[in-house]
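Question thread 4412

I'm putting together a teaching handout and wanted feedback from people who do this every day. The idea is simple: show students a protein as raw sequence, then show them the structure tokens that encode its fold, then repeat with a second protein so they can compare. Below is the first pair exactly as I plan to print it.
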Amino acid sequence: MWPLSQSITVIGLASQKIVKIIPIPDNLPEDLSLMNFLIENGITVASSCGGVGVCKKCLINHTVSSCQITLLEFIDINPSLQVQISYL
């Protein structure tokens, strides 16, 4: 897996600031979406479809629908562990 000391860094592209650094817990549910992880940690995620994947408002890093990827999948494909959100 990954070292327990790693964290997700949330960057607001509108503000050009680090919005929050969220530690990655070691007991992640395998099916936890990135969107739900962010919401559970106080990050506002735009979504009008409720996480069904049709509105595309929850895009992070310009291309990833945060409701359609698990946190574990995101960790595997994004070694920088940065989440960039355009409207923050």
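The second pair follows. I'd like the answer to focus on this one:
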Amino acid sequence: MRLWHWLERFNITPCGFSVTKIDGGEDKACFDKQFHASGHASREDITWLIDQIDPDYIVPIHTEARNWFARSFEKVILVDEEKPYEF
């Protein structure tokens, strides 16, 4: 566990993260959900942001929910890889 070894090396006591031994002596990372942040915006936050910006087009790129954008907003462009687009 690279992160755990770095924390130990610099004598950093983590908060919300620990390592436990599982069967066979293998290390397993354990994260406290109280301290977890996904780093991704919720659909409600995305909707609010799009309403605030009022873009001419919406081009969802880094998402697994492309069709949600198409169902939820107007002027959504679902791109295909390696195909050029002009706006």
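Top answer:
Good format. For the second protein you could add a caption like this: The two ends are 45 Å apart (CA to CA). Strands lie at 17-21, 27-31.
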